[in-house]
Fold these 2 entries.
Entry 1:
Amino acid sequence: MTHEHYMKIALELAIQGLGRVRPNPMVGAVIVNENKIIGKGYHEKFGEPHAEINALRSCVDEVKGATLYVTLEPCCHYGKTPPCTEAIIRSGIKRVVIGTRDPNPLVSGKGIEILKTQGIEVVEAILQEECMMVNRFFFHHMKMKMPYVAMKYAMTADGKIATKTGESKWISGEGSRRYVQQLRRQYQGIMVGIGTVIKDNPLLTYKADLNQSPIRIICDSQLRMPLTSQIAETAKHIKTYVVFSKELSETRTGLSKRKALERKGFCLLDVPAKAGHLDLSLAFRALGALGIQSVLVEGGSTLNEAVIRKGLAQYLYTFIGSKILGGHEALTPIGGNGVESMSDARALDLVKIKKIEEDVLLEYRFRKE
Ligand code: AOF
Ligand code: ZN
């Protein structure tokens, strides 16, 4: 069997950690001796043993002389758990086949060096692209110190996100809404503008398991958050940031509003604003510094426009419902004034088309500018 064959199995194991290991990467490992798989494991839960350790513990046969396949370079640092390199060396494994290097500066190539100095053969970059893709949020955050940002909206076949009176339930069907629930489980944070909170009073959770719900982030420069909203009522149990204007935080009204929100359980984050608009680049930078690796932006059209204008998004999910609303006044997904010339359009690369019942989902990557 090829290296790719076993790495694929390791990748399938890795994604079983989805939603449970973040902000750690998802990692899978397979141990093979004489063409036979003798052990398998993956990183199951944040703070618990790494993939390699679980694979070693699962071995029934002799590990000496075996090959370890692992989707990410083994760590060599003391984190919440001891270094995987030490356990590998102790086990008598002869060869380690790695999907991709760990971008964490505490590891980044050092894990490989340690294994090599102990006489272990190391094979690198097997299914590297796929191994990076499963942890694209972790890689992006390590490199950019900013969260990986994806935007999601649902629009009608004529490109509207609500009627002219603001009704938006429902543009997309049940299947699409179930899909969005799965997305919420994948992203560490979910962001909306305060307009959406006031208009729709959403909960913004992963409903099947609140423990896997993303952190909620509300852009609310003037602290208009209603204290009776569903979000406010649940802020003590589900971590929720309110991002607001630094200028407001220095006024007396700002201070009293801030106190009232803190009593409700909100975490307050102030960032500079210009003409009442938050500096979103600084907001995302601050969220990155708080360890938030990925954010799903769920609108509305004002927030979406600001995110796109500043080039802050990497990925886009567009759901298209089989309906037409019509009208000049009905909102479209991206508000503001838009660009004047076709040459200023934001370019996208289409990566996926999916039919979901009567809806269509289009997934795009934002082309780098
Ligand atoms: C591995 N195997 O399965 C994972 C690794 O705090 P800790 O001890 O859990 O360490 C977290 C760091 O370890 C994380 O930032 C990443 O660099 C690496 N993750 N390494 O060898 C694994 N999950
Ligand atoms: Zn490790």
Entry 2:
Amino acid sequence: MIQITMPLNFLGTVYREIRQALIDMGDMFDLLGQPAEVQDTPGSTDLNVTGGHVALRDVAFGYDPARPILRGINLDVAPGQTVAIVGSSGSGKSTIGRLLFRFYDVNDGALLIDGQDVRDVTQASLHAQIGVVPQDTVLFNDTVHYNIAYGRPDATEDDIIAAAKAAKIHDFIVGLPDGYQTTVGERGLKLSGGEKQRVGIARTLLKNPPILLLDEATSALDTETEMEIQAELKAMGEGRTVITIAHRLSTIADADQIVVLEQGVIVEEGKHDDLLAAAGRYAHLWNRQSEDEPA
Ligand code: ATP
């Protein structure tokens, strides 16, 4: 990117616009993790979500096939349930999310949504059914209205306001100089981490997907904001299938199922209390984090 952008610097405003567009595109890929590398399979049909059951069957994957990242992953997320994936940094948590979105194809095994292999459905229909709330919501250099409506371009003004209210960001927006027409993002008003997260939540609420992929915020939010955002994410998860990639264990203690990943393998799974009682890997992570982050 530096090599591309440096020569553009002295070519004036037009090129600065282009450069910003390139950066925005880069951000958009960041938003979803990675650029899409796979194409629709010829003859693929639209994904038909009936309940939102997500299943990984013996999944193996490596970005470089010579270096496996995930091995023998079996996971079942029943419709409407919340599964939290935990594990140390680099264990492959976010990679599972990227496979669900089919940014990459598995090397072995399969990933199914309501029994349909993600390789057999159109990517547009797959992406329409999965809402992603990433670690750091990327805002486009555009109005707040646009940034929320991005979740569903045909949304009405009333829909957008309702989503903003549910994400508890409406009052903040109406206090901005131009309300919903205020430009935000790199070249506009800079929003705080918590405000950006709320715009992201409003965007996802508007999209109303049956499946949610939450990549929990690692960016520093103050404790109160973080608790509020967690409550809003939790409310959003009601009635949806949720896969949470968790970095802090305190936020996922009430998940229906917790999966502990180590070096690309599931080493433990169960509910919080059972895993603590088992005094294994999860209990170790929990105790270590409790020491790091005293309540
Ligand atoms: P963290 O908690 O730090 O976010 P994670 O458990 O989500 O980590 P992943 O992002 O899934 O980990 O990464 C798993 C492994 O895959 C890491 O070793 C990482 O370096 C590698 N990896 C991630 N993305 C790529 C990529 N695009 N190309 C090659 N290797 C990658």
